[in-house]
Inverse folding.
């Protein structure tokens, strides 16, 4: 659950192929070719017997990252710092809208630079067992 810059609550779900978390737990890094998809939902909330409950209400955007240890796309503004970066909005899910990862993506990921630009702290499945 995230409170965005406007004070709105969002729910973030991140998806990866089977084996991704296991590889990360063993090595402390993401394998070349790893695909991560983060789906961001808006939320609704209301009183429940347990208190104020929040739930996902509709997809806002999808962020997609592809691990690229080999630098396969030099000069492409959507590939760099070890990843391919993409953004899809829910009103046009077939159109990738990011134009330059340094301008459109990297700014939000600066606090996660030490963990390969990924916010691993929020994902207990990546912790060592």
């Amino acid at each position: 659950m995230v409170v965005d810059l406007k004070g709105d609550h969002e729910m973030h779900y991140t998806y990866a192929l089977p084996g991704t978390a296991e590889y990360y737990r063993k090595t402390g890094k993401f394998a070349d070719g790893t695909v991560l998809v983060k789906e961001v939902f808006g939320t609704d909330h209301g009183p429940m017997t347990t208190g104020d409950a929040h739930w996902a209400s509709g997809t806002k955007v999808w962020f997609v990252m592809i691990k690229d240890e080999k630098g396969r796309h030099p000069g492409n503004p959507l590939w760099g710092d070890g990843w391919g970066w993409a953004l899809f909005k829910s009103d046009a899910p077939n159109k990738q809208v990011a134009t330059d990862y340094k301008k459109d993506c990297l700014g939000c990921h600066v606090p996660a630079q030490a963990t390969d630009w990924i916010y691993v702290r929020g994902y207990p499945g990546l912790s060592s067992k």
